[in-house]
Specification:
By secondary structure, the protein is of the alpha+beta class. Helices cover about 35% and strands about 20% of the residues. The chain has a five-stranded mixed beta barrel. Helix 4 packs antiparallel against helix 5 (about 90-100). The longest helix is centred in the N-terminal third of the chain and has 29 residues, at about 35-65. The two termini are about 55 Å apart.
Length: about 200
């Protein structure tokens, strides 16, 4: 489009109307012969290209930068301490007490019990429980949900009893069940940018 607006077919002069006639379009719209239309077309084309480029490259980069803005639950708030609210309170009370934690991120480490089949939307990973349960937490479930080709490809090579570390976003908390969304496998040596809530 920029080339057509910049180069006349026979003498490299700027003229969209000349291009239209050259390809066999003789009844061109009046506005196409308007002085200065070539510059407007070039400017419009550049604008569209800029918007397209931003959509393809800029938006993913902005989303990626949000990684640094993830707010993690305080490190002392382990899955056990989070779930104990549902052991010591009614469900409605525990839900109220933990509602501010929904959406925050946390790191968990455990031994793989199962990697579920791909559902079309996510893969669920569950941790192995203690062989000889001693406390209520030994019966608790931590369910990690992974999405995206990159993460799912990494899950395919996991085996039962593999020890993994996961970061995930607290999605749902029930009695003895903690569900983490948008999970990612973390290498033990990898430094994860962490931002804790104030206070």
């Amino acid at each position: 489009m920029i080339g057509a607006a910049s180069i006349k077919p026979e003498d490299a002069a700027s003229n969209l109307a000349a291009w239209a006639q050259w390809v066999g379009i003789h009844n061109v719209p009046t506005w196409l012969n308007t002085p200065g239309i070539d510059e407007k077309v070039i400017a419009g084309t550049i604008l569209v290209a800029t918007i397209y480029t931003f959509g393809i490259w800029g938006v993913p980069l902005i989303r990626g930068s949000n990684y640094k803005e993830r707010v993690f639950a305080p490190p002392e708030l382990t899955p056990e301490r989070l779930l104990i609210f549902f052991e010591e309170n009614t469900a409605i009370q525990a839900t109220e007490l933990t509602k501010d934690r929904i959406g925050q991120w946390m790191r968990v480490t455990g031994t793989v019990r199962n990697v579920g089949a791909f559902s079309g939307h996510f893969v669920q990973v569950s941790f192995e429980k203690t062989a000889k349960p001693q406390t209520w937490f030994d019966y608790a479930e931590i369910l990690c949900y992974f999405m995206g080709t990159l993460q799912i490809d990494r899950l395919k090579i996991l085996k039962q009893w593999d020890k993994i570390t996961v970061i995930g976003q607290i999605g749902r908390i029930h009695k003895r069940v903690l569900e983490l969304d948008n999970c990612e496998l973390v290498d033990t040596a990898e430094q994860v940018p962490v931002k804790y809530p104030p206070g």
